[in-house]
Amino acid sequence: MKVIIVFFAFFFVVSAISFDLTFGLKFDDFKNQFGKVYKNEIELRIAEQAFNINLGIVTFINAMPGLAFKLGLNEYADKTFKTFQENFLGLVLPTDPSERGNRVENQNSGIQGRSVTEDYSSVTAPAAVDYRNYSMPVKNQKNCGSCWAFVVLGVLGECQSFQAIDKQLKSSFIESRMMISNSSYNTVLSEQFLVDCDTRDHGCNGGWPHNAINWIAKLAQGGVPATTSYQYYGFRTKCRANVPKIPMNINKTIQNNTAGNEDMMKEIVGSVGPVAAVISVTSYFQLYKSGIFYDSTCSSNCSSVNHAVIIVGYGTDQATNTDYWIVRNSWGTTWGQEGYAYMSRNKGNNCNIACYAMYVL
Length: 361
Ligand SMILES: *[C@@H]1O[C@H](CO)[C@@H](O)[C@H](O)[C@H]1NC(C)=O
Ligand SMILES: *[C@@H]1O[C@H](CO)[C@@H](O)[C@H](O)[C@H]1NC(C)=O
Ligand SMILES: *[C@@H]1O[C@H](CO)[C@@H](O)[C@H](O)[C@H]1NC(C)=O
Ligand SMILES: *[C@@H]1O[C@H](CO)[C@@H](O)[C@H](O)[C@H]1NC(C)=O
Ligand SMILES: *[C@@H]1O[C@H](CO)[C@@H](O)[C@H](O)[C@H]1NC(C)=O
What we know:
Number of helices: 9
Bound molecules: 2-acetamido-2-deoxy-beta-D-glucopyranose
Order of helices and strands: HHEHEEHHHHEEEHEHEEEEE
Family: Belongs to the peptidase C1 family.
CATH superfamily of the largest domain: Cysteine proteinases
Largest sheet: 7 strands, mixed
Shape: globular
Number of strands: 12
Structural class: alpha+beta
Signal peptide: 1-16
Number of domains: 2
Distance between the termini: 77 Å
Domain Cathepsin propeptide inhibitor: 27-84
Mean pLDDT: 83
CATH architecture of the largest domain: Alpha-Beta Complex
CATH class of the largest domain: Alpha Beta
Low-confidence stretches: 1-18, 109-121, 162-184
Helix content: 25-40%
């Protein structure tokens, strides 16, 4: 008996040491790869511990048979989900229930106003669209809950530069929008301006995209500075309202409360273009690397969304006959597929992807 216990104790000690060694090495690789520098020994140890937990999650999930996606040790792998949640998500649902429903607001900023033909009846969404080639660059919101600002300016910028896709999509509705767009608008717009100045939202503590769009249209007189004159820091600074602004064409701002209806979301993305959407993020999404993400632990309640993204397309993986959404995130290009993710489509509104579509006309 004693012999057996001693043997097992020995075995555990040896395996614990060898685990520590492998983990230690991987953490060093990780630090080098992402140029991580920690303030002090305590922070380093906390990061290492989080990394080792995430390493376990990644190894475990990637070894599971039959999953359509893979996780990876990206630049967020040294953070527990709790820390990540506190610092990198930032969606605040409006407390007023009327602001959560369908909202269509006409804007009268008068800056380069234009009329739009909004006739959904003539539009049939294609079976698949992919706007990535016409998209704004993937950005990084850094340690700030400003996802709402990134999706708003992403959608605005894309709307302004949308004419490039007219060759790809032939619906009359889309073409009518092309006519009034201007591809040279592919300017990189300043999220920091929204973080600092948008009084309807809460800077790095979160916001709601449709509120921010309306704030731009009404209170910023429909203009947004470029990052060249209003740089991104990732923390709130003093609002500089008087920097030069690029006028945006905003005639109408739309919030379609699609309430989990993925067909409706497909109609909108296929006929309108990229839209701002909200999702529920879990620890697996933090570490997403590739494939079609599906998370059975995600809440399916549109009230529990915690992050905003831009849906830039949808389609079906022919090999596995799996439907997906193409989503652009604001966590930099080392996350996911160059900053994009494929998320499950038509699998019960997984992670609440089809709760809201928000865009401008
Ligand atoms: C905005 O669009 C509406 C129709 O949707 C049109 O009546 C109105 O004139 C447009 N506003 C401007 C400033 O062009
Ligand atoms: C995007 O552009 C690349 C390179 O030009 C091309 O190979 C690819 O087919 C394009 N994708 C789409 C969906 O248009
Ligand atoms: C497109 O936008 C640029 C930059 O604002 C402007 O100089 C140009 O005149 C615009 N072109 C059209 C056709 O509106
Ligand atoms: C939401 O989008 C669907 C699908 O295009 C459309 O039928 C519906 O009228 C839209 N609702 C609003 C309020 O825009
Ligand atoms: C969704 O969550 C909200 C808030 O937590 C709750 O009031 C509501 O009953 C939930 N809805 C469903 C269908 O579970």
